[in-house]
Records
---
Amino acid sequence: MAPSKFLLGVLMAVGLSSAVPTSSNTIVAQRQEPSMPAVESRGFNGMGPASIIRAVIEYLKPANAYDPSTPDKCVLEFKTTAGGDCMTYVQCKETDSLGSLSNPAVWSQCFVNGRQYFNDPNIGDYSINFTQAGGVNGNTEDGLHHPILQLADVGNWDPIDVQSLSDQALGNNDGGHLCSWTSGDFGGAGSRTLAWKCGIPKLGTNGAFGISSDTIVHTTGFTPGWCTFHIIQHQRNENGIGNDYVFDVNLYDDKKEPIGQVKNKPIDGTSKAFSMTSNLPYTLVITASGNDEADVEFAYAGTTWKSSDSAHCSMGGGPNNGYQDGYREGNCGFTC
């Protein structure tokens, strides 16, 4: 089935990394083109719908975001019967049972273009708006339909076209879907019921749907001078981490303003490195090619240094090389 215009649009809006592999399988810093689309500035780990949809397609497939076994998610289900009687449920456990009623439990905006707001401790503030009903714009489908979902913590209320995403899941068992919908009986509500469900990243998780967020967390631009970053290196083969190290990095400019972030970012299995984009004009390359005792290596715009270089870094050591809690961390700086 051909992807919708919405899905094509959000996927085109996602910038690709500006790191390029060389013939020797190393990653080198490359100047970021000024024409790159703006990175989503706020939301879940700094991500909006485009990043989440891409993660579901690339990481979860053949599973879906709303599958019971998908970790670090909540399933948001909502339904309407006979053009009214709107109900919303949230389930954050790994089960296929219906979740708890939303807050508020009773909709006051259960009509076309009525935007109902909710709050849930696991997914934050969100809203649902049915944009069509039977007979509206020539559509003869019974009841309220074509819902738009918006979450404060996903792209700062960026709209998610639930109907468009759900239509792609109909008759498509390949997986990689964020939302789906059904008609008929739903929770004993009767046969004139339309129901939708979406998998939503649970608040407080670092990497739902396997997301590594190369995200700008401030604005465009930066103050040059001495940039710094806090780095966490997660121990491999522990706490669900695979055979390669995984990193969290928070990057700041000379005025200590946040200008970039990655969470749960694994190194490439071949080069043992990854390249981090940010507000800076060049990428920051991080390499962890050695064993637990080895230095982490860094490169930015032709300058290289190691985690043991006291002029640039202070990196955790101590018992078990600093991994006694499953990770080691430190702070580094460089001229930017």
---
Amino acid sequence: MAFGAPVSHLSNPLVAPLQLSNSSSQADGIPADLETSIRFAGARLTQAAGVLLGLSQDVVAQAIVLYSRFWVAEGGSLRVFGAKDISAACLYLIAKLSPNPQSPRNILNVYAFLISPTSPLFSGNLHDAPHEAPPPDPKSYYLSEGTYFAQRASLFRTEAEVLRVLGFQTHIALPYTVAISYLQALDVFGKASGPKLSQRTFAHLTSALLSPQLLYLTHQPPALATAAIYLSARDLGVKLPAEDWWEVFDVDREELGFLVVALRSMEGFAGVEQERWQRKRVPMAVEDVEGELEARRLLDREE
């Protein structure tokens, strides 16, 4: 079993350092940089699918955390499972446990659109003006009945694999409500800057879901919430208590500093990934990963 039982409903089972440095994908020959890129692309795919399905952010966040856990658990290898399939299975599983469950057809239709050639998610520059991008071609993401039933069966099998690899551990505590409680304790809502500070805090917590350091797997919600509040206050110039207020929330200076640096680095990391994969698509299926590895082998031989 990859993850132990959580201490409480406000905490998560955390990954061991050995799991981060020796993932199943790397043991199967996947380079660390490629693994990071695929994990990042899959988390973005999960976020985009959740938005198109009209799911709440807490459901989407839980799905991304579950998706991230799968790749550091024993057996979660990119040479065995496609990132797109695991993303869809995690979102389907978490939504099933929420007040807004989604049918397999809804899940598969959305994912078919997002990975289609005309989808804006992995095609070109997302910052291009809308009129510069070609309109989506419905034929590129249409699912015939035969294809739908085959993919539905695959979705069910992948869902079972996710549960097996994770030892049926689906508990996920998020830092959003913790952050609200901390902001109230710091008495920021009584100030004009309160709404902007809370919005910026939530934005940092959401971007942390895509972190290459897997912050949601290595730190508990109180630490994430504290770091997001600290960084947001610095960004907006909001004054917080002069004392080491984060210690009240059981976060030491070293952990706070690491998380703040990690959160600050997200924009640069996302920019590097976009530039790196601007001319080709991130491999989201097993056969695509094999193709990328073969291309790298050929390039190494030429050099």
---
Amino acid sequence: MALRINIPPLTRALLVVLVGLSVVYQAASYRQNKSADSRNPRGVPWIALTPQLSIYYPWAYITSTFAEKNVLTLLVGAATLLYGGKYLERAWGSAEFGKFLLIVVLLSNVVASCLYVLLFAITRADAQAWVTLQGSIDLQAAFLVAFKQLVPEHTVTILKGVIKIRVKHFPAIFLTANTVSGVVFGTHTAAVLAWLGFLTSWTYLRFYKRQPDLSGTNTGGTTLRGDASETFAFAYFWPDLVHGPVAAVTDSVFNLLVAARICTPFSAEDIQTSNDHANARGEAGLPSLINQGSRRGGSGKREEAERRRALALKALDQRLQAATANRQQPGPSAPMPSTVGDANPALEAATGKKDDSTMV
């Protein structure tokens, strides 16, 4: 019986690229350290991104994300791609998933490279001149943001239930850990990439990614642009205690961007529809990624289609109930029917008399 690999095609290809580039990078680094040029601070710029040399190796803006420094980070990166990629590729499709990865990887590395070039221009420090940007830390942050959007209330249990954490708290924990590590242990490149991966993915999912309008009530077309739901606002990535201050800052920034015509404000219809989608996604939950590997045939695709259909039906049902409730409410100026002088045939037939009463 042939072995069936139940991994979506793009995720499978990226796993191969990750392992291949990481092995090549580590082999090249080992050979360079053993050579006479071991004091060369330039690393392996044709795989990992060195901002000062990126003009000669522009493909490094992509390959650097899939070149891990050691076996431990390689295992973490492979697990991220395997489990996160399997779910997101099935939820969005290969084309949209690939677009999401390309935007996050490219923009995060370009912005990080510009930041370190600017820092070198200010400080003239050699350490900033030849810094190496690499690793899938930006993808890890982006995947956590995507899961925060899709299944924020799903609970992850660790150590047989000793630790329980909801998915919506993982981005803040991840960013805090990388920021503290960057300050204490000097892993500032990882902290920078983590924050850029977070900001890039959230901006794309919040304002630009197109998704189907499952409710069918959006008058602008069959798709929605971005996610205007309240629970996916920037402030909701942080503890409740700081929601107010964070919202005040982000709202001010957003208003400036709207005034500069860089961003477009969401309509009330977009917000309501996105809230309906968010509620439906929260009740649908997160399917088991581990059990998917043991299922045969196209059951994964069928279950995903059923999940989408259930979300669409739930959102449509909520809209129909709201419309029915609005129609049942009597208008304030609706005229009362009058039957003055009208004969009641049923009463006349029963009593033999005409009904001259008035109905109020």
